[in-house]
Amino acid sequence: MTTLVPMISQEEIKQKVKKTGQQISLDYENKELILIGILKGSFIFLADLTRMITIDHKVDLVGVSSYSGTRTTGIIKFTKEPDLELKGKDILIVEDIVDTGRTLSALLNFFKTYKPRSMKVCTLIDKSERRDVPVEVDYACFHLNEGFIVGYGLDYDQKYRHLPAIFDLKL
Ligand code: IMP
Ligand code: MG
Fold first, then answer.
1. Which residue from 9, 11, 13, 168 has the fewest beta carbons nearer than 10 Å?
2. Whether the Cβ atoms of residue 96 and residue 38 lie closer than 8 Å to each other
3. Whole-number Å distance between alpha carbons of 135 and 69
4. Is the CB of 40 under 6 A from ligand 1?
5. What is the rounded CA–CA span in Å between residue 1 and residue 145?
6. pTM to 2 decimals?
7. Which residues lie at CB < 5 A from ion ligand 2?
8. What's the CA gap between 153 and 40, in Å, rounded?
């Protein structure tokens, strides 16, 4: 039987995303901010975060898929590349979860080739104790060390993304 145990409420998410948006607005004043959402997991977080940022900024999306067979080498495939000009811009990668760090590490190497002026990372969930690859996260709404969570964009087998809060999935 599959059980969904409530973990982070809608209200908690709302407060944290608002705070993060306010901090980003302060940090990126007078910069050329571009949020880059990583599909699909970040789509709900990105939609809420962009509306909590009070300074001018642009939004782009990239699609990425990692294969289980190549995960260890950190090889990822882009299913959608960025549309906007990133050269000389201040890019902020918006992720759902940073877990082993493999996906993010590959993404950072990829975005470096666009020669942005600065590159930082914002994630909804940071599972920092589970890193295999050392990557730095600049903004994290929540920290988590165990469990597999779903909802608010996060999926298990493409399901549960629509849930408005975050749940611990017990299989
Ligand atoms: P990693 O950092 O390369 O290990 O991969 C992180 C990705 O794995 C995230 O972007 C999610 O798509 C997925 N992921 C890791 N932990 C969870 C979880 O608890 N729930 C849903 N997806 C997860
Ligand atoms: Mg992901």
1. 11
2. yes
3. 22
4. no
5. 24
6. 0.95
7. 41, 96
8. 7
Question: What is the chain's pLDDT, residue by residue, as a tens digit (171 residues)?
Answer: 899 999 999 999 999 999 999 999 999 999 999 999 999 999 999 999 999 999 999 999 999 876 655 445 567 788 999 999 999 999 999 999 999 999 999 999 999 999 999 999 999 999 998 899 999 999 999 999 889 999 999 999 999 999 999 999 998
Joined together, the tokens standing for residue 108 give 């950072």
Residue 147: name the closest of 92, 97, 88, 107 by CA: 97
In the sheet that holds 118-126, the strands lie side by side as: 76-80, 58-66, 33-39, 90-98, 118-126, 139-143
Sign of CA dihedral 143, 149, 151, 154: positive
Which of ligand 1's atoms lies nearest the C-alpha of 156?
21
Atom of ligand 1 lying closest to residue 41 CA: 12
User: Exactly one of 90, 99, 132, 157 is catalytic; which is it?
Assistant: 99
Q: How far apart are CA 104 and CA 119, in angstroms?
A: 12
Say which ligand is closest to the CA of 103: 1
| Polymer length in residues for the chain | 171
